[in-house]
Structure formats: structure tokens, C-alpha cells
Design goal:
single chain; Rossmann fold; 2 domains; HHMT-like; transferase; SAM-dependent_MTases_sf; N-methyltransferase activity; methyltransferase
């Protein structure tokens, strides 16, 4: 790293704890579900070319909750189609949770799950050696390009796996969001140089435009309550700061000038808004970070 920090991904228990807190404090999953139920079905209706078996792939699928939502929408649009679903996920814990979810979910007899405990780069090598000619109908990469070395090469590889009418869905933090502004401003101090940690949709858009690759862009509006970040020593606030900066124990390890800079930016109106909630004589000020994700469909 450019700064003497340890990346949050190196401490999986702490990462998981801060990730779960992020989901609790944000509208991340709700905005994704809105997209999956209201926008994605029309996209899925255009794939498949009349084939009786669809090849689907999730890259960085986590515990599978979002994957199964998308597979359900695919089934509604193509009720008589079988699905071969490749799951790519490097975490044992997440893969186990995904398998448990599949084992208890109804109406999945039409889906064959292939489990790949691999990173995206490991899977790329595996695919090229084992089944280089197989083509995919739908590939989704949701909030995972932060953890690859070369996001442009990763996008290019998985795009090369698509059928002519196939679709690649990428969801990332928007560079125009509060989170994106945080990463852009403090990229040199915070971001791990060994992975593309601070990549945003702006970076991917520049790549696609340069290569002349057509895409459709969708905005997924969400917010995250970061109120406790401004209370020194607050355990919730420290975990939220860890997740925002991707640094283990950021509030303890960051120099005072960097810590002040990050907190000042997070509180700036360009990144967040303060909402005053009044109950009788008690006034609470909540600070909400704009966490605008964007979906790109290639």
C-alpha cells in the first residue's frame, strides 16, 4: 500500500462484521432488489436465443442472496429453460452459506450449480484450461471489481465469454457518490495498490468508451447512515470507517491529518447530508452518506 495500512480484506472476521453493519445501515440491498425486480427482467428477456439451456455465471457471488433473486427473475421470463449456473467465490464461509441457501430454497430443480472456490483470476486460468469454448448467456459481477488486480482485463475476459446476445452486468460504486468522492480524494493514502480497491463506475465507463464497447447505464440510489463515524471511540463508527476506507482500524492507525481530512470530507454536503430528528426535547443529527451505485449492462 502507499500508506502503512493493512487492508480490511486481510482480516476476514472484521471485514464480515463491518460488511454486515454496512448492510444494516444502508439501503444497498433494497436498491439492488428494486433493480432486479423492476429493470432486470426486461434485460433478461432478450437473452438466450431460444436455447433450452442457459449458461449463467456469478463472479464474486458471496452468500448467494442476490444471485438467487436474479435466477428467480430469469425463471419468470424463461419458465421452460434449464440453467447451468457457475458460482465463482473465493470465500469458504460465503460459499458454504450459498450452498445452505440453495439446499433450503424451493423450486430450484431446473438449476444445476457448479461451485468454484476461486478468485476471478484463478477462475480465468481454470476456464481457459478446461472449457475455453463454452459461452455464457448472462454474467453478473456485483461489487467485486474492487478486489482484482486489473479491472479492465477482468471485464474484457468475462465479456469474451458471452454469446452474441449475452449480457454482462456490472454493479459498482459511482464516482459521483459520496463514497466515490472519498476514494478519489484519498486514493494515494488509502487504496491498496495490489488490487483495484478504489475503482468506480467512472473508471469502467472510461474504459468502455475508449474501446467503443456499447453499454446501458442505470443508477441505483442508496444511502448509508454514518452518524457514529463522528463519535470518537464509538465501536460502530470505527467499523463503518474501516469499511468506508477498507483499512483495518482506520481511526486508530491513521495519522491525525488524514483522519481529520476523511471525516471533514464525509461531513461535507458533497458527500452526505445531515437530517435532524426531534423527539420532544431530544434532537438527534443523523448523517447519511450518498452511496450511489451504478449498474452497467454490456
Amino acid at each position: 500500500m502507499a500508506a502503512p495500512f493493512r487492508s480490511l480484506v486481510e482480516d476476514y472476521p472484521r471485514y464480515l462484521k463491518s460488511f454486515e453493519l454496512f448492510l444494516e445501515r444502508s439501503s444497498e440491498h433494497q436498491c439492488m432488489q428494486d433493480f432486479i425486480h423492476n429493470t432486470l427482467p426486461d434485460i433478461l428477456a432478450s437473452i438466450g436465443g431460444g436455447r433450452s439451456v442457459f449458461n449463467v455465471m456469478g463472479v464474486g457471488s458471496g452468500a448467494g442472496e442476490i444471485d438467487l433473486e436474479m435466477l428467480a427473475q430469469l425463471h419468470l421470463k424463461h419458465p421452460h429453460v434449464k440453467v447451468d449456473n457457475e458460482v465463482v467465490e473465493p470465500s469458504n464461509d460465503m460459499l458454504y452459506k450459498y450452498k445452505v441457501r440453495v439446499s433450503t430454497a424451493p423450486d430450484l430443480d431446473h438449476i444445476n450449480f457448479e461451485w468454484n472456490k476461486m478468485t476471478a483470476s484463478e477462475f480465468e486460468k481454470h476456464w481457459q484450461q478446461k472449457i475455453p469454448g463454452k459461452k455464457m448467456d448472462f454474467i453478473h459481477m456485483i461489487q467485486m471489481l474492487y478486489y482484482v488486480t486489473d479491472p479492465e482485463a477482468t471485464v474484457s475476459f468475462f465479456r469474451s465469454l458471452l454469446h452474441k446476445d449475452g449480457k454482462l452486468l456490472i454493479i459498482l460504486v459511482s464516482g459521483e457518490s459520496g463514497w466515490g468522492k472519498l476514494w478519489t480524494t484519498f486514493k494515494k493514502q488509502l487504496c491498496n495498490t495490489e488490487i483495484s480497491q478504489c475503482v468506480t463506475t467512472g473508471d469502467i465507463k472510461t474504459f468502455l468508451d475508449t474501446e467503443g464497447i456499447p453499454y446501458r447505464n442505470y443508477e441505483l440510489l442508496s444511502q448509508m447512515d454514518i452518524t457514529e463515524c463522528f463519535t470518537e471511540g464509538d465501536q460502530v463508527g470505527e467499523l463503518l470507517l474501516d469499511f468506508l476506507t477498507e483499512v483495518i482500524e482506520f481511526s486508530k492507525n491513521a495519522p491525525e491529518d488524514l483522519k481529520k481530512g476523511v471525516l471533514d470530507l464525509l461531513r461535507h454536503p458533497d458527500c452526505s447530508k445531515e437530517v435532524v430528528i426531534q423527539w420532544s426535547q431530544l434532537i438527534q443529527i443523523n448523517c447519511a452518506l450518498s452511496h450511489l451505485s451504478r449498474a452497467r449492462v454490456l
